[in-house]
Amino acid sequence: MERLQNKVTLITGAGKGQGAYEAELFASEGAKVVLADVNLESCVEIQKKIESKGGHAISMSLDVTSESEWIKCVRRIQNTYNALHVLVNNAGIYSRIPIMDASTKEFQQIIDVNLKGVFLGTKHSIPLMKKSDFSSIINISSTAGLVGNQGGGAYGASKGGVRLFTKYTAIQHATDGIRANSVHPGPIDTDMIAENLSTKEGRASSISKIPLGRIGNSHDVAMAVLFLASDESSFVTGSEIVVDGGLTAQ
Ligand SMILES: NC(=O)c1ccc[n+]([C@@H]2O[C@H](COP(=O)([O-])OP(=O)(O)OC[C@H]3O[C@@H](n4cnc5c(N)ncnc54)[C@H](O)[C@@H]3O)[C@@H](O)[C@H]2O)c1
Q1: Which has the closest alpha carbon to 3: 222, 240, 243?
Q2: What is the mean predicted confidence (pLDDT) over 177-190?
Q3: For the residues 119-128, what does the mean pLDDT come to?
């Protein structure tokens, strides 16, 4: 039995990295996957890969900071499937600029994509998600939303906001049959942190802080997201899964 059989699943930031990996994995588990990203072409590439393996996917252009684009996106899902079972708020941008070097504009941009994007996605998806008996929202936060760091400020604030926003969503929509949980990856080998890992020293320094002794990958995160998306986690809501090789357990 496929773990997401016929579940309509919207993944933001699905054009590459973790979102793209989750899209392929979810399709292989029977989901009807809606790939959404500011970069539509990259979604179409992933869609073709999914279709070549017999899976189902469609692609949409979506800037998660735009309320009007969210409204259009959900309307299209309603017209196509008349259902939305799983929402993965995965789109995000990263910055290590320390507080004193960050401009107000840079701070706002990170909050807009990483936190306002999650608010808008949640707000506009819930009316359609409520129509199904069981739905699941998974918000991709970060270990940076759990503990502080030498680099960054806005990024941690946005991800910490996502952590708490998830719990409010879980409480306010439990009786609608909607679960909401956050996932907190540590360093994951995608383009997002490619610069940090580009030198031997940078990679070694990151690894030295991780008890399991390696950088994570998209598969590590996707397996946690898959559990939260599936009915296997039917009693799990308002919770957080940390996928960091033990980094924040210390
Ligand atoms: N890579 C890591 O080490 C790491 C660690 C913890 C958390 N995260 C989080 O995981 C999520 C996925 O990151 P990733 O590692 O796959 O990064 P990535 O840079 O490989 O992919 C991010 C995707 O989001 C899309 N995106 C960016 N802004 C967008 C917007 N306004 N609207 C729609 N799409 C947009 C990009 O086009 C891209 O396809 C992010 O929320 C990130 O903050 C990543």
Answers
A1: 222
A2: 98
A3: 99
